[in-house]
Write a structure and sequence with these properties.
Shape of chain B: elongated
Oligomer: heterodimer
Order of helices and strands of chain B: EEEEEEHHH
Strand content of chain A: 25-35%
Largest sheet of chain A: 6 strands, mixed
CATH topology of chain A: Rossmann fold
CATH superfamily of chain A: P-loop containing nucleotide triphosphate hydrolases
Strand order of the largest sheet of chain B: 1-3-5
Strand order of the largest sheet of chain A: 6-9-10-3-11-12
Order of helices and strands of chain A: EEEHEEHEEHHHEHEHEHEEHH
CATH architecture of chain A: 3-Layer(aba) Sandwich
Number of domains of chain B: 2
Helix content of chain A: 25-40%
Shape of chain A: globular
CATH class of chain A: Alpha Beta
Structural class of chain B: alpha/beta
Number of strands of chain B: 6
Number of helices of chain B: 3
Largest interface: A-B, 33 and 23 residues
Chain lengths: 262, 135
């Protein structure tokens, strides 16, 4: 929901970033305020995933220009774990498997790291077990998943639900969901979307990076941004996503060509 | 591991961790004597390499005088990948703690077999030993 007096959570100004010396982001501008849901759409290679990784602080990506302020603070001065503890959450497109590390243990340690920053008491093993059982309901996940290693042997849908479970536990201020809908069937998509909707409040914000309109049937965006060649080409409301579904991305090539010529 | 009698069974689990510029070698002998009919051994050698200068070698020695004894050997290698580390960091877990979690996870099979107090100490010692040697 758009409120004019809402806190500016994320202020991205002219962001440039490269990976292995190849420039990917070429001047991204984006403002996200509390209570808002933003969708960033675009073709493969447009820089959507790179944007999410740069915001989270992935070491393979180098910021070469511009700035990002998170609640007034310079985001790039913070280590990735600091950003997470302060409420920046990245839902990965391909959550990695970590054999040997128990899901329950991992969730407890990360939840406590966040709680410490929120000024809340850390939860011991027993208290945490109760706490996590409540949160499992948000994603309709079986408690058996807690005993397994992080994401090990999880199906695509189960991995994505594990991401949203983490979101439910960490209570982020800005949640960036990188193609959370990819590889999901419609039922899994509904569960994931339901979880995201339940967790949205007027004090936090969600940035949905997606290819397809169908996620936006379940989660209504306030703003839709179309990304191409490392920049946001156009911003609109909900209808822009529907328009894209109809017309595809061909118009993007034309517009880029026109801009290149200008 | 030396098998003398028939239908005897054994399992060897070895977890080696190399960090920095170290090179870790596993040398194990599994021997089946002539009377070890229907005896079985399973050996598992796992190596974890931390950093790109570490190395691991496995030298399994198998000596069998009993054709009806079964000897199996499996070796695996893994690294702490940048993606795994980043995943943990993106959840608020600091670098050192993330490495420690992954190393503990790697050793879990072995630590679980030890008496609890000893396992807890071994775990802490391992974390201390690796402090500063990663990254």
């Amino acid at each position: 929901m758009i409120r004019p007096d809402a806190e500016l959570l994320l202020d991205i100004q002219d962001l440039h970033a490269s990976v292995e010396d190849k420039p990917i982001l070429k001047g991204v501008n984006l403002q996200v305020k509390a209570g808002e849901v933003h969708a960033v759409m675009g073709r493969n290679g447009s820089g959507k995933s790179t944007l999410s990784k740069v915001l989270a602080g992935h070491p393979a990506y180098r910021v070469t220009g511009g700035s990002v302020r998170y609640r007034g603070q310079d985001l790039f001065e913070l280590e990735p774990e600091e950003r997470a503890r302060l409420g920046v959450f990245l839902g990965f497109q391909y959550p990695v498997e970590i054999p040997g590390v128990s899901n329950l243990e991992f969730l407890r340690v990360s939840t406590n790291a966040r709680r410490e920053k929120q000024g809340e008491e850390e939860l011991d093993t027993f208290a945490f077990e109760d706490h996590v059982h409540d949160k499992l309901k948000v994603v309709q996940m079986d408690p058996a998943f807690l005993e397994r290693s992080v994401n090990e042997g999880f199906s695509g849908g189960e991995k994505k639900r594990n991401e949203i479970l983490q979101m439910a536990l960490l209570e982020p201020v800005v949640a960036i969901l990188d193609e959370t809908d990819s590889g999901l069937d419609i039922d899994a998509l509904r569960i994931v979307a339901g979880g995201v909707n339940q967790l949205a409040t007027e004090d936090n914000a969600t940035l949905l990076i997606t290819h397809y309109q169908r996620l936006l049937d379940e989660i209504t965006p306030d703003y839709v941004h179309v990304m191409a060649a490392g920049r946001i080409l156009r911003t609109g409301g909900r209808e822009l996503a529907l328009e894209l579904e109809q017309t595809g991305y061909d118009w993007v090539d034309q517009e880029l060509a026109a801009q290149g010529a200008a | 591991m030396v098998h003398v009698g028939p239908r005897t069974r054994s399992t060897i689990v070895s977890k080696g961790i190399s960090a920095g510029r170290s090179s870790n070698s596993y040398r194990g002998l599994v021997q089946m004597g002539p009377n070890a009919k229907a005896a079985r051994n399973y050996s598992q050698c796992d190596s974890m390499l931390i950093g790109d200068q570490a190395a691991a070698n496995t030298y399994p020695y198998i000596r069998s005088q009993q054709p009806q004894a079964a000897i199996e050997h499996e070796a695996s290698t893994c690294r702490i990948s940048e993606d795994q580390l980043f995943y943990l960091q993106s959840r608020g877990i600091g670098f050192e703690e993330a490495v420690s979690m992954m190393v503990s996870g790697f050793c879990r099979d072995v630590f679980n077999q030890l008496p609890m107090e000893f396992a807890a100490e071994a775990d802490k010692l391992l974390a201390l030993k690796l402090e500063g040697s990663v990254g």
